[in-house]
Design a protein that fits this description.
10 strands, two-stranded antiparallel sheet, globular, 11 helices, 318 residues, alpha/beta, single chain, eight-stranded parallel beta barrel
């Protein structure tokens, strides 16, 4: 398996990579396999797989009280990675998150991935639990993704959480982290957010993948701010084609981003799903062509389980 940072350094042309969402619990892997199958013809050097924390639900007891249950809504990262590796010849980049796990649990997960021969991860804090006003780390967990990055870097140097481990094996993880061209919604401003990103890079991150955006100028400004702050690792733009009328409101709300006025004007009054799909694809094609003309190293596509519009974009651009 190749490290993402080596792929970026060795590639002479920009390439497409993809991010997939694992199926929900109770669904087999056929839908995931189908999405990957549709994308494999483009020879992606790697595919990212998202990680979702367990959720909490309150269920009624016979006496009228309620009990809190922690439920896994999707298969584990390890299960998804193993399933994909068994079927496809492609490097897998699992997401590892702080949310919902203690430091020791995260370390065990990383060591399991290492045993599987996985040497690429994306280190993320993760979102707050539904109903929480802000992210709350688990007991003995990480509050910030830079702490997770530092732990992975320590494992790469054979430094374990348990000080009694002597002469432990060194892992060999390449570490990706997230960047936000329009700032993370919790950051006071974009400059403050870039400073936070610098902490992740200083802790050992090898490259950055951005949150989705629809205005390239915001990505270019973000890259300039990062370079001025001393962040010199590759910054891969993350892209998603808008595909349904509902996403016109849902994406800005869920991902705290702005849609350009030209895009919203093109979509104004359009309720037909097929027309919105076509407008979204054409906008994304133009966006990707402009990014490549500006020398980006790669483009990372957020498929969200839907491959058809991404296929159209990749066919037109690469």
């Amino acid at each position: 398996m190749k490290k993402v940072i080596d792929i970026l350094r060795e590639s002479k042309e920009p390439f497409a990579s993809f991010e997939l969402v694992p199926p929900v619990k109770g669904v087999d892997a056929s839908g995931l396999y189908d999405s990957i199958e549709k994308l494999m013809e483009y020879n992606p050097p790697f595919i990212n797989v998202t990680c979702h924390r367990d959720e909490e639900e309150y269920v009624p007891n016979d006496d009228g009280t309620f009990s809190k249950l922690t439920l896994a809504k999707r298969p584990s990262t390890l299960a998804i990675v193993a399933a994909i590796m068994q079927k496809f010849d492609v490097d897998i980049v699992p997401h590892v998150i702080c949310g919902g796990s203690s430091k020791t649990k995260i370390e065990s997960e990383l060591l399991d991935l290492n045993f599987l021969g996985i040497h690429n991860v994306v280190a993320l804090r993760g979102d707050a639990m539904p109903g929480q006003q802000k992210f709350m780390p688990e007991k003995n967990g990480f509050a910030h993704s830079c702490e997770l990055v530092k732990m992975i870097t320590n494992l790469n140097n054979a430094k374990y959480l348990d000080p009694s481990v002597k002469n432990g094996m060194a892992t060999d993880f390449c570490i990706g982290v997230a960047g936000y061209p329009e700032k993370h919604f919790e950051a006071a401003n974009l400059k403050h957010d870039v400073v936070n990103l610098k902490r992740k890079v200083d802790a050992g991150a090898d490259y950055v993948v951005t949150q989705m955006f629809f205005d390239n100028e915001k990505y270019y400004r973000f890259v300039d701010l990062c370079r001025a702050e001393g962040i010199n690792v590759p910054i891969i733009p993350g892209i998603k084609p808008l595909s349904t009328p509902k996403q016109l409101e849902a994406l800005p709300r869920a991902f705290h981003l702005d849609l350009p006025e030209d895009l919203t004007a093109a979509l104004d009054g359009v309720s037909d799903r097929a027309k919105v799909f076509e407008i979204g694809v054409e906008w994304c094609i133009a966006q990707c062509k402009d990014l490549i003309a500006h020398g980006v190293p790669a483009i990372h596509f957020y498929t969200m389980g839907k491959a058809e519009n991404v296929k159209r974009v990749v066919e037109a651009v690469f």
